[in-house]
Amino acid sequence: MKITCDSCENCTKCKDICCYYKENEKECSPIFTKDDAEKIEKKLGKGFFKQLNKEKTLFRLILKKSEKHKNYICPFFNEKTKKCTIYELRPLDCILFPFTFVRRNNQIYLGIINDKDMCPFMKDLTEKDIEESRKRIVKKIKKDKIGEILRKYPEMIFDYEGVKLLGKIDLDKI
């Protein structure tokens, strides 16, 4: 079976590209909901997040300088083991990566980040692979009640550049 872009097996082979950020990519780090941040702070303490909106419902990571590169890194990524230290608590952005939700013209779409530098597995994917992965992601969205998260935090859906739109999503049906 070919590994596709919704497989944890991919990430365990790659282990780091999406966890590093160049200076001009720092605002591309994952978004954490208030619920996500509270769970992590309860486990690890405070100081990992900065407020993203005035309602204090969304947060971004405070990235740290990498020990191995000139880049910034997710503070939860262990550069020695190449593993996420909050894997079981990771936010929706990380769970779905390289898939994301996009808002365009008051419509919500499922999209895939179309940047081979951010996810090296993208370069080998065919349209058929992406379509098969899209179907699995839609099932996961329904099974894991991701629609509930998006309805609770609709402001976490942005209009991103560099995203290939894969289809409209009706939040009331997921």
Number of helical segments with 4 or more residues: 5
State the helical fraction: 25-40%
Strand order of the largest sheet: 1-6-5
Q: SSE order, as H and E?
A: HEEHEEEEEEHEEHHE
Query: Mean pLDDT across all residues, rounded?
Result: 82
What gyration radius follows from the Cα positions, in whole Å? 16 Å
Indicate the low-confidence ranges by residue numbers: none
Distance separating the two termini: 28 Å
Structural classification: alpha+beta
Strand content: 15-25%
- Main sheet specs: 3 strands, antiparallel
Q: What is the total number of structural domains?
A: 2
Shape: globular
Number of strands: 11
Describe this structure in words.
The protein is of the alpha+beta class. The chain has two domains: 9-88, no CATH class; 98-174, no CATH class. The protein has five helices and eleven strands. It has helices at residues 8-14, 34-44, 92-96, 127-143, 146-152, and strands spanning 20-21, 31-33, 49-51, 58-61, 64-65, 72-73, 77-78, 83-84, 99-104, 107-113, 163-168. The protein has a three-stranded antiparallel β-sheet, with no helix packed on it. A hairpin with a 6-residue loop joins β5 and β6. The chain is globular and about 40 Å long. The protein starts with 7 loop residues before the first helix and ends in a 6-residue tail after the last strand.
